[in-house]
Design brief:
Layout: H1 3-20, H2 34-42, H3 47-55, H4 65-87, H5 99-108, H6 112-126, H7 132-140, H8 156-170
Helix pairs in contact: 1-2, 1-6, 2-7, 3-8, 4-6
Length: 172
Amino acid sequence: MSLEEKFYTALDEWNKHRAELIFNSIPIRFLDCEGYKTLVALGPDIFPYIRNELQGGSQSRYNNEIYKESKLNEIEQEAREIYQRLFKTKNPNFNRLTEQGRKNDKLLLKDPQYNQLLDKRGILEVGDPKTLWCHLISAITPEFENPAKTSFFPDPAYTSYALSWLEQKLGK
């Protein structure tokens, strides 16, 4: 597996973890998962990929609305196909407010393929780690003075600082 593949696999795992904790009142838990630990272990070699995500260009996976929208459309289409396969109807919203519709929703949640789609959607919707990039970079190297310190609030000034630091470190 290439470094880029390792980076995005770990980032997906971290984002899945963050999606599961979306309403958690203890934000430090966002950093307590294998995906985050893997990113830290990959070390400074992943800085170009972090810079790319912070820049939000066409190569970015989580800071790119066109990519995100196309992936969400793919997930929606797959969900329709699963619904059609399970319930023999083309309209997933068909009778959702009826007793049968509610039963269908419960059955749908038991389908492993549908649950994988929910995970993918959650990962995309959580999206860009924003301020959490600062925590990751500072965990990788003591050279980076984390402006967020103990904050987990998505402040654009923090992500801007992280991007500037990476551009200086890596050269534009």
